[in-house]
Amino acid sequence: MKCGFEGCERNAVSKGYCDKHYRRLLKHGDVNGRGLRKVDEGNPVERFHKKYEINNDGCWIWTGSTRPNGKGVLYPRHSVGDKSVGAHRFSYELANGKIPDGMYVCHKCDTPLCVNPDHLFIGTHHDNMKDMVDKQRSFVGRGENKKGLAKLTNEQANEIRQSTLSQSKLGKIYGVAQTTIGRIKRGVSY
Asked: Do residues 118 and 109 make contact, with C-beta atoms less than 8 angstroms apart?
């Protein structure tokens, strides 16, 4: 017997559906996998205003669904019909109108989950990166200047550069990998 979902050619395993559609039915209550919206949730604007809490800094902290960005930081997501958009972008457009193509919605408050339109501004990727550097939130720098992530001091790095010992011996002495020693010797780090 084939799956009861229109267009699916898989074999049915339970309740007339294939494994994929049966799991959607169990998880979402709907074989389309979109879930069933509660009648009281209303339109996207009403739903949006129910999904944040205001903190002492005036940030509207998103409590709805999130998705990690490329760096693993969770960013707010908001559904508008069948589409999921950034909640901060939705908030900005709601307050200020359409976002020009290719532009970013950046945070003045540096809180990724904030959706307060007063804390958001439009900028290019370059503007966003410059803002990050100006606020000293980037990992710019080498050695000790790299936000406390360095395992060695700049003085130790100078000692390593001047040493004639092998990289593996230096790695054991300083408690770092041989590749770290090689990077110091080549001037790539520190």
From this structure: no
8 A C-beta contact, residue 75 and residue 68: yes
For strands 52-54 and 60-62, give the pairing. Answer: antiparallel
Contact 48/99 with Cβ under 8 angstroms?
Answer: no
Q: Using pLDDT thresholds of 50, 70 and 90, give the confidence band for residue 58.
A: very high
66 in any annotated domain: yes
- Does any domain span residue 69? yes
pLDDT in tens, 4-47: 888 888 898 888 888 888 888 877 777 776 554 444 456 888 88
Residue 107 dihedral angles phi and psi, to the nearest 5°: -105, 125
Residue 85 near residue 99 (C-beta atoms within 8 A): no
Lowest mean pLDDT: which of 31-40, 64-73, 96-105?
31-40
One domain for residues 9 and 53:
no
121-171: per-residue pLDDT in tens? 999 999 988 888 787 776 555 566 555 667 888 888 889 999 999 999 999
Range of the domain at 66: 41-134
3-state SS of 89-118 is HHHHHHHHCCCCCCCEEEECCCCCCECCHH
Alpha-carbon distance of 119 to 105, in angstroms, equals 10
Number of structural domains (the chain) is: 3
